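Fold it.
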Amino acid sequence: MKPPYARSAVPGVGRLGLIEPTAPEELDSLGWSNLDGVELLWALSRAANADLALRTLVRLQEGLGAGWTELDSALRSDQRLRGRLFGLIGASSAFGDHLVADPSSWKLLAGDMTLPSKGELTRRLLACVGAVPEAGPNASPMLHRAVLTGPEAIAALRKCYRDQLMVLAAADLAPTVENEPVVPYQTVGHQLSDMADAALTAALAVAVTVVCPDEPCPVRIAVIAMGKCGARELNYVSDVDVVFVAEPSNAVASRIAGEMMRIGSSAFFEVDAALRPEGKRGELVRTLESHVAYYKRWAKTWEFQALLKARPMTGDVELGRQYTDALGPMVWAAAEREDFVPEVQAMRRRVEASVPPELRERELKLGRGSLRDVEFAVQLLQLVHGRADTSLRVMSTIDALTALAAGGYVGREDAANLTASYEFLRLLEHRLQLQKLKRTHTLPSPEDEEALRWLARAAHMRPDGRHDALGVLNAEIKRNSHRVRRLHAKLFYRPLLESVARIDKEALRLSPDAAVRQLAALGYSAPQNALGHLTALTSGASRKGRIQALLLPTLLEWLGDTPDPDAGLLAYRRLSDALVNATWFLRLLRDEASVAQRLMTVLGSSAYIPDLLIKAPDVIRLLADGPSGPRLLEPHPEDVARGILSSSARYVEPIRAVGAARSLRRYELARVASADILGMLDVPQVCRALSSVWAAVLNAALAAVIRASETDLGGPAPATFAVIGMGRLGGNELGYGSDADVLFVCEPRPGVDETQAVKWANLIGDRVRTLLGAPSTDPPLVVDTGLRPEGRSGPLVRTLASYEAYYAQWAQSWEVQALLRAHTVAGDEELGLRFLKMIDKTRYPKGGVSDQAVQEIRRIKARVDSERLPRGADPATHTKLGRGGLADIEWTVQLIQLRHAHEVPSLHNTSTLETLDAIGAAELLSETDIELLRDAWLTATKARNALVLVRGKPTDQLPGPGKVLSAVAQVAGSPDGDPNEFLDNYLRITRRAKAVVQRVFGGV
């Protein structure tokens, strides 16, 4: 609440924005508390921070002494001075301190103040150190020599530079207080860049004098401005990026460059040469030939992107022009590089990830809807089209947007809106930096209303009838940030669609060649095909075509971030064609942005899912969020299994019953795989869901075949029948590419001949296997009975008594080991339970397995490793049989079970992960060993599942570096989707696990 100013003679002074208790006394000390000072007070009230301005005026009065009368008189008579001075000291405590340090410098702001030209700025800064052009027969006409050096030169340069900066800031801030003309954003950027050029020209003069005090400079040296300075769009407080080129490049040139950087960083701003070849590790100065050789052979895409803004700044300008002429053609060929798209995408991800989540909405430079979004998009379009269109070879962001709009690469309205938002965000950035002359890009916290209110006033925000200045600021920040993010998506794709669809008859359209170039740069490896898909999706004058044209800019951007945008776009077209009569489909994508984004992620990541979605499109509805979270996670495996059984039970014919089960399986596979790709399910959850579906389908098929058989027999079946899951099915750990390993067991009903019962059971088992294995476009349903007694040469189905007799007399080591994962999955539960109890004495033998059996298991494992690994496979990256892969972990766990399960009941478990927990609880292995084995199993399983999702078919071998590995890395959840990091992590984890396997399983 503002205090009453009882001592003031000015009515309404409590409404002047002065909230400090000392304000009345300060006004009295200035002599502004009478009616003669009303005009001054109202001007003061319009400063961004009236109290700060008032305090600074009091300090100025003390510093000026008798000279205050002159300033007071000038303020009363010169409206422009009032606007400049009050605007400056109300927005910037740093410039207030500068004025107090030299009170007479207020005169720089009086009268018909004009912004000096670059030549005048250079003259003033050179003059403050007494610099004159080099003289003598060997002198360089491009260089100057200074009289002042050392601390005196730095102090003089700092004072002169800060004075010129103050003049610009005062002109920029004056509209806050008085109705002065607003200084355009581009004028501010140009002026700041010209000041930087002049400042470093003076710093170079001092450096030449220091390094070569008694003779002409023996080298030609050019300073190249990069980044915002190169583009002449510099901030008030910013690093100035430079690159040095010299002839010859020797110790003298390096010393001059280093001295210039030291002086510039001390007097003006941080001078940064990190954009030079090889970055901070590279030589500070190179010859032109050395620069050209580096960029031809070693430079990365981002380095060519940086060269977009390279501009000769000072020093030997002719040498600087030779530098830009030599490297310019390489810049415009960068988009043709093979690694262009992945490098640009990786750089974009790194930029976004560098901002802490809590600051992303407040970060003007790097956050969402920020300056970098605009600059990144504009520069990418320049690189894509600049080789063919020289009009795009401009440096500043605003000029580039204008050129892109003129060429039809960006819509005119979009370019205008993006320009306005860019300038608004730059205005806020400038005001934040002016406050204390500190480099910052972060908005004040929403809780700090006072800081935000100051920013609103400093940025010329005024109440609009509905909101005060703070409300207007918040609304504008939100509006512009959203607009940048939305236009960032449209920037690439809207012109593409205007080229293939008649959205706007007046709009400029990209040529076919330009459209293909743009699609190629966005990550489409077959841009001609992609253009055909866009044409097909938006063709015709139908409502669906118009909706597609509105949706596709955003959909294409999301697809561009996926591992395979070409396949994703084709899948989206196929899905759209299949759902052409489903009115809900496009409406859902239009109204639910999260559904559209998730669908594009799934389609562009997986060859496994699109066909499933075409046949089970209702899964797309599950991509939405429900009241309690993602709807993809709502069905529970038990509910899904019951649904499959009840749905198939409605049909009498086994083929139709299995068809119903297949349909629900298809739906469930699409749901689970989509949730997996979107990172909503962990590995154990995926395995449990897939195992539950497999068991339910087996149950449904078995029940349907038995029902049909009983109908044919005219009575009950002659035997009970159970399906025992083995391998990963028994362990509840199936992957997408896993077969179902099973045993079939039967038990004759009382009074039924065993031979007849077994014959019937074999027919049932064979019928189930045939029905499920029938050709289909769905992921296969292979029922594998190879683990039965006597292998594939033995009978398909045995009675319980036959199994018991066989295992008691003939069971081999590998068969005993296989029984460790036996678990009932379908059929008669009572018979299945009796089977499990019967085999317990075989798989959990009293006293554990013998040493001979252990040696046999090790021998078999060695044989498996040598004979079953496919020819040409890399054992380091084979997820199943490779080093530290699934087989290594599972055989190690099973050997521990065979040795200790008779005395540790918790080891009676078919799950690898749960058994590992039991092994750790029983202290049979150290906690470290348990973690290494668990991590390896989870990592290998995740990679194996990702391989199936990406390639659409079962495979166990991780690919070498390339597109597929990048896709697997992204689907497997590698940070930033970096394939190298993913592969390194996989090799590290499995290598450590292998050491445990060798010690525990191999006895090494």
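The CA atoms of residues 433 and 440 lie 6 Å apart.
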